[in-house]
Amino acid sequence: xxxxxxxDKKKKKKISFQNTVNVVPIPMRTEYSDRVRSxxxxxxxxxxxxxxRNQVEFAAEGWDWRTVTEDDKMYVCCISGxxxxxVHYTRNHFG
Length: 95
What we know:
Layout: E1 2-6, E2 9-13, H1 34-40, H2 44-60, E3 75-76, E4 83-84, H3 86-93
Antiparallel strand pairs: 1-2, 3-4
């Protein structure tokens, strides 16, 4: 049994596995279309942009993983539905 932290209470949870499974083949990355590939994997430029954005966000949180902003405290873009860290909103709208 695994212990799962749930607020102030610790509960025992049990997991089990089925004896019968469905095997689903996973295509090689070269078998995906360019459109699908571009949505599944990031290129070097996108990885660099994400790393720079993450650095700004983490710095705003005092470089402490315990104080990171959770999803429910993020802004939501009304066009894309993407979550926006508050540091970007305050930087762009207040100075």
